[in-house]
Structure formats: C-alpha cells, structure tokens
Amino acid sequence: MADQRPIGFWLKLVDRMIDEQFAATIEEHGVTRRQWQLLNVLSNGVTSVEQLDASIAPFLATDVPESAAEHLSELIDSGWVDDTAAGYELTERGMVAFTRLSEVVQANRERATDGVSRQEYDATLATLERVARNLGWSE
Predict the structure, then answer these.
(1) Residue 67: is its pLDDT beyond 90?
(2) pTM confidence score
(3) Residues 80, 90: contact at Cβ < 8 Å?
(4) Which DSSP helix (H) or strand (E) runs through 89?
(5) Most buried among 30, 81, 123, 134, by the most CB within 10 A?
(6) Which CATH number fits domain 26-134: 3.40.50.12780, 1.10.260.40, 1.10.10.10, 3.10.560.10?
(7) Chain-wide mean pLDDT for the chain?
(8) 130 Cβ contact list (under 8 Å, min separation 6)
C-alpha cells in the first residue's frame, strides 16, 4: 500500500479546487467567492461590517489586513447591497440575484459531494471542526 498523504495535503488540494471550481462557475455571474459569501450572510438580515468580518474571517487574507468592506463596494455599486444606518442589507435586486446564485452554488456543491453519503459528509465536517478547535479555533 502506498503511503497515505497527510491531512494538510488534502485540505490544501480540496480548498484550491473548490476555489477554482467556484471561480469558474460563480464569477461568470458577476461575483467573486467572497462577494457570494457576503450575500449569503446578508440574506439573513441587516449586518454590520464587524459581523460580516467575523462570518467570513476564515476566507479573508491573513498576511495583509483585509475586511469584508473591501468586497462590498461592487455589491453596493451594482445595487445589490445598501449601506444603511443599521448596517449592510440586501436590496430587492440583491435578493433576486442571491436566489439565482444560490441555485448555481447548490449545483456546484452537489457536483463536489457526488458519491459522498450524508453520514460521510457530516463525519468529515465534525472531524474538521474538531481539528480546528484542537488547533485553537473558537467562535
């Protein structure tokens, strides 16, 4: 039996492949992965930039300071997001776009998990969460 590759190999490979696949499918609809993540958070209601930063923190660059605000400007310019006194929120146009993009993202997720049972998927998520917590991550 060949040597088993370490978890870091698989994590980096899958992350890169998810990014590439996501870019190939979602960017043709005019948004980046970070913008999709922001739309997804905002679909739950008005949110501050601090809450957005916390929600997408694992996806923001750590080598240079990065904020969700940097990814919101195009969404605001496109009329999908409003910057209100209460925080950021999806516009009606943004909600329509989010709904359409949700279908694209769901199809992408289904391709990525084809042949993986619900139990395998849940076990993988639980294991990765445990590893992250063991390494010091907390919400």
Answers:
(1) no
(2) 0.78
(3) yes
(4) strand 87-90
(5) 81
(6) 1.10.10.10
(7) 91
(8) none
Sequence length of the chain is 139
C-alpha 84: how far from its chain's center?
23
Q: Give me the residue spans of the domains in the chain.
A: 26-134
Cβ–Cβ contacts within 10 Å for residue 46, how many? 14
Dist. CA 82–CA 93, nearest whole Å: 11
Residue 128, both tokens: 């990765």
User: What per-residue confidence (pLDDT) applies to 138?
Assistant: 85
pLDDT digit string, tens, across residues 87-113: 999 999 999 999 999 999 999 999 999
Residues near 132 by beta carbon (within 8 Å), at least 6 away in sequence: none
Structure confidence at residue 42 (pLDDT): 96
